[in-house]
Structures
1.
Amino acid sequence: MGKKQSLLCSILLSFALTGCGVQTTPEIIMPDQPMQSEAKDEPEKKADSQVTSSGESYTVYLITMDLTDSYWKSIDDGCKQAVSEIGNITYKWIGPDAHDDAQQSACVDDAVSDDADAILIAANSAEGINDSLRKAEEMGCKIIYVDSPASYDCVTALATDNNVAGKTAAETMKEALQKKGITKGTIGIMGVTKDTASCVAREEGFREAFEGTDFTLSDTVYMEDDANNIKNAVKNGLSENYVGFFGTNEGTTVNIGEAVKDESAESIVIGFDTSDAVLALVSEGIIYATMQQNPTVMGHDGITIAIQALEGTYTDANTKTDTGVTVITKDSM
């Protein structure tokens, strides 16, 4: 492993990037949803006795887009579960302070300088961190995508099929509008950033599902780490009688719901993810439905596949696992 540090010195001297932030532990409520995995089946062993089959010790990092959304905490929970089952793993969760390619690249570089054997990463953008990922691979690091892949090669990507999930959200919106007898009108679309590939794919699927209808979908408003961008857009939309709003992730969903609630308004809100804040708004009837992803599965199976790849029992490359979505409404809670 010492070779990694000596080779990395010359790499890091050419970069002046900001730090990665610190751990957070927000709470989350996640309904259980067993999913089919790409992980190779092995005989079940007790968590206190199961170790890597080779007896080797490994260092594995989880790097997320930030450390604030409780969605990332549930991926961390899944990682910790796998670590306790497998054993012989030093595991660390880090991430930037904001959705920023340079900061996330710095996190990748930090993991490699710590002799990481594998990195699970939710990429901030499709292209922005590829240079750091390439250098990580050159140092022998296995790359596993969780939730949001970059365009660089990997062992596997465990994520929601976001285009399909966006279409599911759209069909749920249509059903809710139909129940209210609404057959036309404008729907507001809220995104994270223009470069957040997972959310862009959800938006594309949502828009595709509304093609040929009498509904108008607004230009996307991006949060860009500022909740007021969403809340102000929702207030403006309500003043223009928007019939619904679609949030493409936890942050946009919460801020749409809170804005609708603050205005004491009625509108169909469809969102993503299942943090305490989102589920509270669903239970109040402010948010009609949210798409529950399966981030715990992403983390658990991501760690499992990473270790299998390191030990040579998982030899595929660039595989994909759709971890699916479940529609959560007030009636289904």
Note: The longest strand covers residues 185-191.
2.
Amino acid sequence: MSENQTEREAADAESQLEDENLSPPQRSKARRLGCAIALLIWFALLLTPCALFYLAANGEIRFDHRDVPQPHAHPLLLVSLVSEAADRGLRFETSRIIEAQSNGEMLCVETAVRFLLWEYSGGNQDVSYCDCYQREGSEADWELVGTSSGVC
């Protein structure tokens, strides 16, 4: 009888192991997602010195819009070094398209300039401005209609 009982216990243990192997725990998806997020954060931390070396060597990191008039004046994202006599730090410049008529003849671009300064002369240096452009047809060049301070 003890042999039957040990065989049954062994079979139960074996079936329990198979059940555990066949059905993963419910938290496995959450764990995988958490591991993926942690891995992305880890790689971002590892690549930070590379970005800082690039910034120090070139003075700026720039991503431009594709279809914006004067793309150099309206970057999608611009991170640049500020190293003046009274001010030292980083400048962040972003722009976005605010108004675009459906016919493609009017366009406004809002640009925001923000500073992260560790040495500064005082005062608020952050600024936002809006440039509006117009063109006669889809093939014509954009012409600046007006510039206003603040949001569009």
Note: Helices lie at 2-22, 28-58.
